[in-house]
Design a protein that fits this description.
about 525 residues; alpha/beta; BirA Bifunctional Protein, domain 2; TIM Barrel; 2 domains; 16 helices; about 30% helix
């Protein structure tokens, strides 16, 4: 294996591995990852091209081959199963691949910031080759209009990364016809050569990539306050959320205050939770919504599972969950949830989902199946379900969910009605209240629950009216927390509400009549939910 080391003042080593089989580089990554965790080496990046290979990621539902594995052998294409995020992808000569082995804690990056950094490197590299690429919300990688040109799949173990990013330069794209890339039906792959009609010198591109790695990884710890400049738009006047790429010029809250800073997640239980979820291919709202409580909750051995996939049929401005056309419900998901509950010894399970307006029952049947299967294998399990609003099928959905009682029934109104056009595209405040009221009436002996965020620009009188509306709808529990921007594509924070104001709102909600109130900057709908159950 060719190995050329380049050092800079940051202690970063860049290795050009030339054209090397995937399995050899995978073994090298694993070796370097262990050495980096032990502090024996500094941050390292492997740059490589691979002979033809298709790799299958940890998310089984996104691993979709269109040919028999024997056909791959006949064509001389290797097939490798690995433990990185995402689904099936392919590598072959002419595609530039780089694998960073980085200690994220030392770089002061979380996983979402790290992926954004990889995308920024790819955007700059492609721009230098005459291709303007862009991110797409919820789909790691880079796109040229509707065509995908770069893929990202990473794994982080005890803060150290492996796997990485693949950019199509001048490789044979027909290899992608043998699979559904990343599990995205209908996706079209492209390359620099296809977009520009030109081929490029790979060694020159690798040299440019090395410069970009030094520039972006070296300044990674200062990414927190990156500002985006956008043309002003009046989003409140539109009947939907800003389109991807648009930003609304509204007051911004400025620097994150001290009371909203969280320590880096660590510990054996955190890693056990992470490994269990990854090995079972389960999604969580913790990661998809970039929840600030993930480290604390996973460290306690709890997580809020996200069923029905991680692609939503709506595009809410406050949310970082991907928007698009979801896959059909996975019939193996209920059993995998039960397996997770047993491995993690969970006693109280919170289940939520994306909006599934594409399904006749809004996904209610899958909620039911998940609850019933987990209960079958874990009879003592207690449940909380956090549901979408079941647009156009509320009565049907509630009939179906009745087969899975008992549970705490939660549905979040999220914000005040005046901000719905900006923050909650596709939602309807009256519809959400009606769902909570109907559920309380239908399920007489259960608790209902909702949640609202502060800091999006709401007025105090609007918040108080929402609390009164919820109480009139029979809502038993309410959670009030600080909105924190989960991604660069999400709405800006207008105000950081101080802790003493949350204490005031807790008293006010209690006066309005809520028997249970969780009100604090980091309060979220499922935060410490296992301590709320009083049935």
């Amino acid at each position: 294996m060719e190995q050329v080391a380049e050092k800079n003042g940051l202690g970063l080593t860049i290795r050009d591995c030339g054209l090397t089989p995937y399995r050899e580089v995978l073994a090298l990554q694993q070796q370097l990852q262990e050495q980096r965790r032990a502090g024996l080496i500094g941050d390292t990046v492997l740059i490589v091209e691979h002979p033809p290979v298709i790799t299958l990621g940890a998310r089984q539902s996104a691993n979709k081959l269109l040919v028999n594995p024997d056909e791959l052998v006949r064509r001389g294409i290797d097939l490798v199963e690995i433990r990185r995020g995402g689904g099936a992808t392919a590598h072959n000569p002419g595609q530039l691949v780089f694998y960073p082995i980085l200690h994220l804690q030392e770089l002061r990056l979380d996983i979402n910031q790290y992926i954004r950094t990889l995308e920024a490197i790819g955007i700059d590299l492609l721009a230098g080759l005459g291709v303007q690429s862009e991110r797409r919300k919820g789909f790691p990688g880079l796109w040229v209009a509707e065509r995908k040109i770069a893929s990202i799949g990473v794994r982080v173990s005890r803060f150290v990364t492996c796997h990485g990013m693949a950019i199509n330069l001048q490789n044979d794209l027909s290899i992608f016809d043998l699979m559904i890339p990343c599990g995205l039906d209908g996706v079209q792959m492209t390359s620099v050569q296809k977009e520009t009609g030109k081929t490029n010198d790979m060694q020159q591109i690798k040299a440019e990539l090395g410069k970009l790695l030094v520039r972006h990884i070296g300044r990674a710890s200062s990414h927190d306050n990156v500002a985006w400049a956008r043309a002003p738009t009046d989003s409140r006047s539109r009947a939907g959320c800003p389109r991807y790429g648009e930003r609304t010029m509204r007051p911004q809250a400025g620097k994150l205050p001290p009371w909203l800073r969280r320590p880096w997640p660590a510990g054996h239980r955190f890693q056990h939770t992470c490994d269990t979820l990854t090995s079972l291919g389960l999604e969580t709202i913790c990661t998809n919504a970039n929840c600030p409580n993930r480290g604390e909750c996973w460290g306690r051995g709890t997580a809020t599972v996200l069923i029905l996939g991680n692609v939503c049929t709506r595009n809410c401005g406050f949310c970082s969950v991907a928007t698009g056309r979801p896959q059909p419900p996975d019939p193996t998901e209920p059993a995998r949830l039960a397996d997770m509950a047993q491995r993690m010894d969970i006693k109280y399970l919170v289940i939520t989902s994306v909006n599934r307006d594409d399904l006749p029952d809004g996904g209610a049947g899958h909620f039911r199946d998940c609850v019933n299967e987990v209960r079958r294998q874990c009879p003592a399990m207690r449940f909380e379900i956090l549901t979408p609003d079941f647009r156009n099928c509320q009565e049907q959905a509630l009939d179906i969910l009745q087969e899975a009682l008992p549970f705490v029934f939660a549905h979040n109104v999220e914000t005040v009605p005046s901000l719905y056009p900006l923050a909650r595209a596709g939602g309807d405040y009256a519809r959400s209240l009606r769902l909570l009221l109907t559920a309380k009436d239908r399920y007489r002996n259960i608790q209902t629950k909702s949640s609202i965020m502060l800091g999006l620009g709401e007025r105090e009188d609007e918040v108080e009216q929402v609390l009164r509306d919820l109480r009139e709808a029979g809502c038993d529990r309410v959670t009030i927390g600080q909105y924190l921007r989960p991604s660069k594509d999400a709405l800006d924070v207008v105000e950081y509400v101080p802790p003493e104001k949350f204490a005031w709102w807790k008293d006010r909600a209690t006066e309005i009549g809520f028997p249970w109130v969780l009100c604090a900057p980091f309060a979220r709908s499922s935060y410490f939910a296992e301590q709320e159950d009083t049935r």
